[in-house]
Amino acid sequence: MAVGNGSAVTAFVLKGFSDDPRLRLASAACFLPIYLFALLGNASVIAAVSRDSRLHTPMYFFLKNLSFLDMCYTSVTLPKAIADGLSGSERISLAECVVQLFLFFTLASSECFLLTAMAYDRCVAIQRPLHYEVLMSRRRCVLLVITAWLAGSLFSAFHTNNTFSLPFCGPNVIEHFFCDIPPIMRLSCTDYHTNEVLGYIFSTCIILSAFALTVLSYVFIISTIARMPSTGGRQKAFSTCSSHLATVFLFYVTSSFAYLKPTSRFSPTLGRLVSVFYSVLTPSLNPVVYCLRNQDMQAALRRLFVPSK
């Protein structure tokens, strides 16, 4: 992962949400309970799925991995943002910034690919219920998860190298609460247009491909549900997909708004606001979304926290 040799900047300053110490403290006070809620919610899902043998199915295997990914996702950015707000420190070294950006994009893109795998799982479950256990074997599920992580790592490696191969020798204030591509590229002391175009093309191809596969899965799902003879059967089939569909919508709408546009059009204020949705609120709300209408998950959580005597 190459970092520009001509770089004179050895550290950056994370501006956060404001220069005002009181507002930075207030943002830290808001982030702390959200972060704790995200950790507790996702850890509860992992524990419930792991302990309840009735949830040892492909769908919940993917959900457990999604929850683990979301725990890591929020942990890459929020602890640093909270600590900075409480201590007043804004400094982040160049090496720490490179690592944070790499980990953040690895987790974000892995979630993108994992959501695609989950859509495929639901498609197989509804279209081929009699062959579901064979088609979605344990080995295939593990392979899909590993593929999502590897693809996410490669995607992130490209973007990290593409960003930090630029020279940084001037302003070092990042207009964000974590190291993100658009505000970092804008600090380069050379023309970053080529890197911007390469990143935009690569992101568009990968994200739209994953999204297209997810949409295609749902086209097959909806067409199969529409042909079901009973209303109850249609409702039950759709209920198994509604939580995943809500997560896909939240993830793609917010992340696409942030990254599928030129860096030169990046707005610091809007960028921070949008990033709160896809990097903080979405991974925090995923456990709620998946448990809201899922009676099996609700029952597993009750057994986890209120064990029978």
Concise structural overview:
The protein is an all-alpha fold and 309 residues long.
Q: What would you say this structure looks like, in words?
A:
The chain is mainly α and 309 residues long. The chain has a single domain, classed as Up-down Bundle (Rhopdopsin 7-helix transmembrane proteins). Helix content is 74%, strand content 3%. The longest helix has 34 residues. It is globular and about 65 Å long. The termini are far apart.
Give the SSE layout.
Layout: E1 11-14, H1 21-51, H2 58-87, E2 91-93, H3 94-127, H4 132-135, H5 138-164, E3 173-174, H6 181-185, H7 193-226, H8 231-259, H9 268-292, H10 295-305
Parallel strand pairs: 1-3
Antiparallel strand pairs: 1-2
Rg over CA atoms, rounded to whole Å, is 21 Å
Query: What would the CATH topology be?
Result: Rhopdopsin 7-helix transmembrane proteins
Average per-residue pLDDT, rounded, comes to 86
Number of domains: 1
Distance between the termini: 55 Å
User: What is the strand content?
Assistant: under 5%
Order of helices and strands: EHHEHHHEHHHHH
Identify the overall geometry. Answer: globular
Low-confidence stretches: 1-6
How do the strands line up in the largest sheet? 2-1-3
Structural class comes to mainly alpha
